[in-house]
Design goal:
Blueprint (H helix, E strand, L loop, with lengths): L2 H14 L2 H5 L4 H4 L5 H14 L4 H14 L4 H6 L11 E3 L2 E2 L2 H6 L4 H4 L20
Antiparallel strand pairs: 1-2
Helix pairs in contact: 4-5
Amino acid sequence: MNAEITELLLSEAARINSPEFIAADPVQFPRRFLSSQPDAEIVSLLAAHIAWGNRKMICRDADRMLEMMDGQPHAFVMEGAYEAISDTTNIHRTFFGRTLPTVSFPHGILPRLSMTNWPGPTAGHPTAAACR
């Protein structure tokens, strides 16, 4: 790889891995739950479902979705609380309340997954600092 491409890639990696970029990107949502793998996995899945379009709108709507979950995505799924959201509630563009159980939790798959062995970020891992 030539020096120009290497410099470009390193520059972009530094820009994207910065707190300023992360604060305005949907990747912020799983990072809010570093101490809870089940919450991080569920919010990752849901944020990914709505991650199309304008980043500002995606973040706004993901925040609103987390508010619907009282900031506890794992409990929200495990307790089936998504069933109480009206089918017509618009969450993001074409993603409605009726979408939650049919797309995100088909046949109760998420509640059956084992998500109990979350060690958290490993201190020696190169991305551990970026996860904070």
